[in-house]
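Task 17 of the worksheet. Students: predict the tertiary structure of the chain below and write it out as structure tokens. Keep your answer in the requested format; marks are given for formatting as well as content.
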Amino acid sequence: MVQSALSSLTLGYRPLWGRARRLAGIQLYVHEDPGTSADLAHFLRSVDEIWSRQAPPLLISPQSRQVLCNLLEHAPQGSPWIEVRGDWLAQDEGIYALVQKAKARGLMLVWAGGLADVPDADAARCFASSLLSLPPEGASGIANSVRSGEVKVSLAVKAADKPQAAHFFASPPLNLLNGQMYEGLQSLALAQACLDDYEAAAVAGWPVADTMQAYRLQQPQPSRDALFRLMKAIDKEQSLDVMEEILGSDPVLAYRFLLYTNSAALGLRRGVDSLRRGLVMLGLGTLERWLADQLPHACVEQDLVPLRTQVVLRAKLAEELIEAGVSLDLQREMYLCSLFSQLDLMLHEPVANILRRTPLNERIFDAIVTRSGPYAAVLQMSQALEGRDPAPIRQLREQEGWEAEDLNRMLLRMLSALKLGMPQLQS
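Model answer:
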């Protein structure tokens, strides 16, 4: 049966990170729900209506051949970029014909596949860019089997006369292509090589585990960028809303702020359990002095920006997922719950120990530590929406009574409200 497009689809997303380690785009996974037939032309119209012109570029990633074919057939010029899997293209002449017609209509297409499998010259002309998957052995630093002479056609100019792909690779080096997008990066060193040495347009996802391993011996500090922005907001006498937003843009800064406002040395008579209450009770003069104390030790590591930003994206999702009509205080509490849910990664200790140092509501502790209570499902859904797998999203939808259309619209609105280069606030 045919249903409304957004009620017949399961959507997920993944950030695309640029060379400055800031948000460069969004990859949107599109799954057709079992037993349904989505109107993909209507889906594209819905995206066009929701997606802000100031939002990051959108790459639509169909997760079935049928969805891909419908998009290629119905997408008008000016639609978001559309990913085309290389194995589907090679196996199905019908998809190749649709790709050619879509290219002729002016669609921006992205070929997706392994570095060793880039298409021949005729097929390559249909694509504006590529999303290249790197094998696990490449990500771990072992040389890739691909050699420059084995690549049939580059979708961009190859690395110009580089003696090596990157210093960390075993000999012979992994041969990367300039200017493309990459995924499957499990190594921070490989992500650095793609972005810095080979000027990748973006990397999809971020090697979180390896990044945290690389910085495990460093004392976690608030980002210098967030500190400067908050000090600037104080100088300009901006609203509490703006200051709260900046505090919440860095999980380490937010956590340090709550510890400080609840410290015995400060002597506040009432426990501070929210960023806003802390701002009100602390006062701008004391806040400014505290920020100045943090500045000499502030974090300037670019490679930690994607991790911090991803935490903020999850928190924004969780805030949006809270049932409509709840108070602003509950929305802020849900945001803080999600923001602190990954502090264990950044602070290198069990999250239960971290949370016990703050007077946060038990609802937050239960959701994060025991995965129970009224916030648990929201936290789990905000995490599930970050991935390619539709199963946990559908399970939570059914379990909690979320309508697919409402959930999808919420996700698109949240993503559309993002800005290139996030978390830096726009002037």
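Marker's comment: DSSP finds 21 helices and ten strands in the chain. The first helix runs from residue 40 to 50.
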